[in-house]
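can u do me a favor
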């Protein structure tokens, strides 16, 4: 007689980890620190769980996920919105750490998300540098937009803030570039993607760090991951227009800017974009279609480890 599958949900907070099991209903809590995490790993190893699920909580989950994965336990990190939607669908509207842990255990049992390999130490460091760069760029853009509309007495203060932001961004870019160039593997991957017209260093690095599945999945699944897949809105006799939604926002935002450049300088995408516009498609619809076509090209390049070859693509 086979053992009953055991599913574990772990709700992560800054100070505490709440653990819930299904189908036994057992629950307990431990401190979110190294000694308690090590004891938790030993306890869970003895139970031989089928799957463990945690939420992405802004980095608080990294230590426990790394410890569980290093011990060979099957662990998956899910989007908090997905876990909360499952909880709402089953009835509970309240939210506490204990209830959230039970909801995550339910996600593990009902949805069974696929465990993904953890990034290595260098990829984790590069990802942290890239994540730090994004809010600095956003603050610089906001300051530049305000500069022309504020009273004169505030302009000097905003300009000083802009100078500081530019200095920090330059130092961060140097650090990111040095760390990236120190690895032949990452450097080779970046050069492969940057061989495509319209793909710059920021986009190539965002793609490699935030979408490691590139080259391993179909173009349809990648489009869904990023959030550029056309989603149906059909009910009964109603036929709504297709929309894009959800996905990895950082990748999608960078992709949209790269597509804007690519439709001007990329020979394949330029022809494709002009054909869609001539057929009466709105500019945003045509641009989104070009984003998906760009995914197809990049996915094939990474899968085959082949750089951009315009003659072969144009003749295809």
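np, heres the sequence
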């Amino acid at each position: 007689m086979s053992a009953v599958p055991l599913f574990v949900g772990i709700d992560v907070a800054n100070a505490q980890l709440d653990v819930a099991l299904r189908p036994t209903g057992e629950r307990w809590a431990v401190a979110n620190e190294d000694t308690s995490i090590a004891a938790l790993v030993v306890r869970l190893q003895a139970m031989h769980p089928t799957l463990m699920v945690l939420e992405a909580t802004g980095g608080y989950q990294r230590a426990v996920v790394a410890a569980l994965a290093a011990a060979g336990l099957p662990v998956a990190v899910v989007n908090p919105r997905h876990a909360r939607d499952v909880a709402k669908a089953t009835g509970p509207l309240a939210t506490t750490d204990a209830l959230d842990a039970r909801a995550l255990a339910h996600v593990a049992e009902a949805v069974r998300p696929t465990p993904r390999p953890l990034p290595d130490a260098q990829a984790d460091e590069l990802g942290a540098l890239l994540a730090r760069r994004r809010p600095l760029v956003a603050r610089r853009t906001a300051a530049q937009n305000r500069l022309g509309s504020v009273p004169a007495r505030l302009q000097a203060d905003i300009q000083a803030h802009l100078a500081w932001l530019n200095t920090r961004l330059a130092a961060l870019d140097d650090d990111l570039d040095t760390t990236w160039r120190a690895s032949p593997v990452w450097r080779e991957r970046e050069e492969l993607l940057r061989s495509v017209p319209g793909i710059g260093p920021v986009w190539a690095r965002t793609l490699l760090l935030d979408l490691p599945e590139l080259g391993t999945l179909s173009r349809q699944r990648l489009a869904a991951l990023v959030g550029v897949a056309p989603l149906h809105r059909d009910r009964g006799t109603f036929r709504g227009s297709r929309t894009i939604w959800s996905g990895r926002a950082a990748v999608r935002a960078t992709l949209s800017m790269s597509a804007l450049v690519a439709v001007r300088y990329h020979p394949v995408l330029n022809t494709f974009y002009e054909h869609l516009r001539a057929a009466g498609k709105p500019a945003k619809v045509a641009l989104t279609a070009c984003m998906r076509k760009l995914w197809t090209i990049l996915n094939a390049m990474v899968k085959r480890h082949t750089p951009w070859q315009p003659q072969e693509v144009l003749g295809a």
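The beta strands are 7-12, 16-22, 27-31, 51-55, 75-78, 234-235, 238-239. hope that helps!!
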